[in-house]
Amino acid sequence: MENWQEVYASAKQRCHKCRCCPQCNGAACRGETPGPGGKGSGNAFVRNIDMLKQVFITMDTISENTEISTQTDFFGYEVSLPVYAAPISGIRLNYGADLDDLTYTQELVEGCLAAGSLAFSGDGMYDEMFCGPMDIIAKHQGYGIPTIKPWSESDMEWRIKLAKEGKALAIASDIDASGLTNLRNSVTPVGFKNVEELKKIKKMAEMPVILKGILSVKGARKALEAGVDGIIVSNHGGRVLDDCLSGIEVLEDIVKAVDGRMKIFVDGGFRSGNDVFKALALGADGVLIGRPISHAVIGDGANGVKLYLEKIQLELKEAMAMAGCKTIKDIQREHVCVKF
Ligand SMILES: Cc1cc2nc3c(=O)[nH]c(=O)nc-3n(C[C@H](O)[C@H](O)[C@H](O)COP(=O)(O)O)c2cc1C
User: Fold this and answer.
1) Which family does the record assign (predicted)?
2) How far is CA 192 from the centre of its chain?
3) 234 alpha carbon – ligand 1 mean position (Å)
């Protein structure tokens, strides 16, 4: 396939649960978990989209015609753009696509690397749901970020060991998965982690650790206390708590509180390069995109992911050009106006 429109049309044909709506905004799939939707009323997913629409980009059109660069780095690893694939698991169950999680991860990792980006991989209630994706990252010289659910200490430990052996660039843990009902009741249940337990995880890892699912200044301060290297400001795509805030709303306060002491990523409802620009202007170091990248993999595998990320990069460059920014570092708070 040659463009994103073709890829998305193909995804629509192949998804039998997700509707692949013209705008992936959580409205049609409210409460569809399992499925692609947000939990309960689906308000949290819908809010992610709505709040991003309340951030506006300011223009500065008197500038030179110099080349615009979206290049930056992820813990020292050079990336073409600060946009990463969010961890997604259960492709068959959630999208109704005939694609197993292993093939999904293989295509995802390859597509991200081809676009100069990186993928976070998922985890699930069966061991192979972590081991398979981790193996794929290892086969790509560790260029990816395995995401570990908040299991018991021993269950997290062996996963961290595999990540170390596979030379992963970093590990993430979606600590908010403690809100996923099916996993709380599974054979090896997930649970909450306190600061002391998180300190142990950081110590075990001996590599950058990123906590996914922070949604308050209080939570960010605890992450700092635990000594981790980064957080993902996220409501898990609206799938762990109905009626909660969106990442973009709390981002700026968290950025101020953290004051450069760890990396801050954000996700939830990002659908364009303009959206990415908004997060960077509010102080994020990078953005994760979930559902649309799943559509890209389902639609045309690695090629779909590459085409999608290139589209996002082009849009980001356009926003940067119109705001008078030549590099990612040039994107500052003054470049957006927040109306919430
Ligand atoms: C079907 C589905 C499965 C997901 N599985 C995981 C997972 O295994 N681990 C995780 O940390 N987050 C998971 N997430 C959350 C995403 O990583 C991400 O936070 C969210 O989808 C971002 O919002 P967006 O999809 O609107 O871009 C999942 C999300 C969806 C929609």
Assistant:
1) Belongs to the FMN-dependent alpha-hydroxy acid dehydrogenase family.
2) 21
3) 9
